[in-house]
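Fold Annotation — chain and its backbone
Next Lines — sequence and tokenised fold

***
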Amino acid sequence: MAAASPPAADGEALKSAPTDTASNFRSADDGWLDVSRFLDQSYGFIPLVIPITEPAVGYGAAGGLAFIDKPFGQAQAGYGRPNITVVGGLATENGTWGVMAGDMRHWMGDRLQTLVGVVRASVNLDFYGIGRDNALKDHPVSYTLEPVAGLVRAKYRLGGSKFWAGLGYALATTQVTFDAPVATPGLPDVQRTSRVGGLTPSLSYDSRNNIFTPMSGTFVEVTAGFFSPALGGDSEFQRYSLIAIHYLPLHEDVTMGVRGDATVSSGDVPFYMRPFIFLRGAPVMRYQGEEVAQVEAEVRWQCWKRFSLVGFAGYGAAWNDFERIDNTSTVVTGGTGFRYEIARAYGLHMGVDVAFGPDVTAIYVQFGSAWMRP
């Protein structure tokens, strides 16, 4: 390209880039490892081999392929999201395993988004009670969940705005087995095949500058879940949730993010569908309650070339009985990590976080943001 030629938009630059093997995995700008051009090929994908160190299930590994469509050049924040297809599986040392597939796609000029997902798994966990349970908190009971589940969802953009109205349907059949007598105090009355089916309407707002590793913008979503025998389940219950995430650029190399969310459940809720504290440093499903609220803050500093340093801290609470706030469990977490900008044209960073909580120290491999939302 002649020196006098005007710079091309991101999408145009990708189209005109050489397609030899070396250039597909190395940036023409700085010579560093970058998979943007490889992703832009019709067969382009990111192979994922991620160690699992989640305290709830032990050490293991997850593997899969993520197929990501090329970005839309200089798309405005909140628009031009890529299509993503993911297939993969996982296994851990405590016998947990799973396989899954998912596809997110955009239609009608970025006015309609569809999401389809299926999962088959066997997950071995420990039950600590719903809310603070003095009998179980130091002597949890082991149990196994074996779900076969599917989800379909469609979201429609409201006019030319960044608001979306959505409706989803989820159906899951789960075999539940406790490693304890049914009459054990504090144990939920479930030792059988459980079935849930429900509709999940939602309203969301999304102004993030990209979905992988945002540097600015806001994501807010309100979701209601109505589960009923009329919709394919065994019981009648509801779940209501609100999540808000905001990214604020403090400097051209420093981004601060804050995430807050709350979930309320009511009715005849299967214990494994009760909300739980989800923070880096808190074991999955360790802190459950009828209601849960949490907040986490993160600062990312692009310290040198493609490398970033991350620091984060969080607080969560799970309790029963919204009016009286009974049996409350709280947890404080924090940690640090690093990121590498693996696909600059897609705004995709990958890295590792080390998190500290009251029970464990855990390592998390991050693909994009720890709070990524499609």
Q: What stands out?
A: Residues 10-16 form the longest helix (7 residues). The domain at 45-367 is CATH 2.40.160.50 (Porin). DSSP finds three helices and 16 strands in the chain.
